[in-house]
């Protein structure tokens, strides 16, 4: 029996076009962050980053956000440029989920405007959004040359704009997978150093 308390939102991230180029040297490496609540944006799901994809990245990746509640009305989208040290915001938008629920199929493929940090329209992102019961199979949709996405509705949320402003000033934003890998390397290095010290320090000064 379907669980109507919570549903899932499948998002197939197709492509973006006409993005700003925030890369000072070379071409930017875009990836997409998706989340449902501004209260805890770290609980996001992300695409892989596309190296040197520039202003026309193509992903064709399906992401799933679990525990979609009936009172959840907005999908938050952020397009980031992956960097070795600090990832930078390329564009962002907020998508009302009412346009998905309006369709009897609970599925909607659209081109959605995205905005730069100054809240100016800077390109579009193509997404397929599908709301389903959690015990149903996930939905994947691929765009082809015959696909005709609808013009999707977007909105600018004041709290989201504030978050983007704060995000632009941070120096430690990074792709979650890359950040986890960096933390693992740092942890391993610390263990190696500690082990080396334990082998070289006299027994009288070692911690017991």
From TrEMBL:
Keywords: Calcium, Metal-binding. Residues 1-110 form the C2 domain. The lineage of its organism: Eukaryota, Fungi, Fungi incertae sedis, Mucoromycota, Mortierellomycotina. One of its GO terms (molecular function) is metal ion binding. The keyword Metal-binding applies. PANTHER family: C2 DOMAIN-CONTAINING PROTEIN. This is C2 domain-containing protein. PROSITE patterns: C2 (PS50004). CDD domains: C2. SMART domains: C2. Gene3D superfamilies: C2 domain. It comes from the Eukaryota.
């Amino acid at each position: 029996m379907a669980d109507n308390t919570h549903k899932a939102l499948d998002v197939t991230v197709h492509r973006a076009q006409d993005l700003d180029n925030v890369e000072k040297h070379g071409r930017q490496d875009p990836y997409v962050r998706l989340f449902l609540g501004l209260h805890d944006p770290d609980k996001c799901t992300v695409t892989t980053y596309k190296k040197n994809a520039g202003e026309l990245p193509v992903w064709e990746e399906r992401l799933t956000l679990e525990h979609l509640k009936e009172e959840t009305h907005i999908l938050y989208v952020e397009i980031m440029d992956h960097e070795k040290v600090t990832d930078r915001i390329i564009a962002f938008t907020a998508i009302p989920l009412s346009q998905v629920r309006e369709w009897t199929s609970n599925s909607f493929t659209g081109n959605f405007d995205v905005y730069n940090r100054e809240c100016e329209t800077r390109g579009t992102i193509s997404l397929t959004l599908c709301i389903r019961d959690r015990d149903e199979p996930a939905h994947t949709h691929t765009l082809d040359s015959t696909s005709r996405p609808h013009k999707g509705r977007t909105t600018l949320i004041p709290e989201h704009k504030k978050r983007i402003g704060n995000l632009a000033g941070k120096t430690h934003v990074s792709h979650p997978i890359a950040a986890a890998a960096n933390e693992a390397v740092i942890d391993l290095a610390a263990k190696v150093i500690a082990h080396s010290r334990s082998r070289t320090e006299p027994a009288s000064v070692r911690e017991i």
